[in-house]
GTPase Obg
Amino acid sequence: MFTDSAKVFIRSGNGGNGHVSFRRELYVPNGGPDGGDGGKGGDIIFEVDDGLNTLVDFRHVRKYVAQSGEEGGKRRCHGADGKDLIVKVPEGTVVKDLESGKVITDMSGDNRREIILKGGRGGLGNMHFATSTMQVPKYAQPGQPGQELWIQLELKVIADVGLVGFPNVGKSTLLSRVSNARPKIANYHFTTLNPHLGVVNLGDGNSFVMADIPGLIEGASDGAGLGHEFLRHIERTKVLLHVVDAASVEGRDPVEDIHTIMNELSTYNPELLKLPQVIAANKLDALYDEEHDPLKALKDEFEPKGIPVFGISAVSGEGVNELLGHLFQVLRTVDRTPRVFEKEFEVEYQADRNLPYTVERSDDGAFVVEGPRIEKMLGYTNLDSEKGFDFFQKFLKQNGILDELEKAGISEGDTVRMYGLAFEYYK
């Protein structure tokens, strides 16, 4: 089964918590804090693997979680960092935020490796929180949580020339003749389920990449058949090569077929018809009606519109060299740098509150505010001075503590306690 899109859940690792411990050694009765820092959580990293050409692996594994960092230890021991999780994807994979549909990254061109989600930072151990007035800190910083996200992966084939047309018109046969690609060829609809890429070598170091875009059907732009999945591959190409069955082996009108395909392309993305277009009228070897000249009908219809028509036989090779030579000349006039989709979405990381706090209501009705940052601040602030008390109030406001007290239902005149200190609350 061909798979070129997938919905995947990813989560980076949590940072390890800081450790609370105190030095305990013989002849050192009052050892200070020696709790170590927690390890960093693992990142989620996407990396291009040239051996992949579909997203089929993501049908079986849809959840990717990096390892969390370990907690810090005694004697200032640092917790081990969590291992990064590397997710292999084929080149041309576009990573989007599932909810908004915005592009997070495009794994194309020079972008071979990118961190999609960063792991949480490890928390600081209590050895960082000792001050001259608070020598026994009993708090450590918790690790920062990892980030999680549902993403949409879309594979968009990168090629210079994209073959488009209805099923059974000979696209796979043409690609196998002119390149090193070996697609399966058979006479039934939707033979080609995977887009096949082939390098067309013209000699003298000249070459280009051709892609057999799987067969389209009328209504593809509305999602009929496998329309959307196939149409997205054409967005990367530089030149569109329409392949039609000039012999009408299946009773189709080649002129009408091209109009239908153009309509599907335009409905999906009007910018596609601004690409240079060429028509290959295939299966000339199967023409038996001498009175009807489909090649002339195609030329009369499309060459006045600036779209050249070449009569070919992918089976016998008739006219193929002339077609390839023209395609190469067209490619020399366009920018062949692969189109890379711009980043539209930034992952928002949790605000770094290095030292969190708690607001709770005690049994006697007082509001108790605790946390290592508050404890540390009280250790170096002189609340008896006007300047010190002003600093204290600004600290409560800037760190959202006053807002949290309001949410907890505090009223004027209520008591607030912080580490042995009691205050009356006034707005």
Remarks:
- Residues 254-268 form the longest helix (15 residues).
- The two ends are 66 Å apart (CA to CA).
- The chain has three domains: 1-155, 161-331, 358-424.
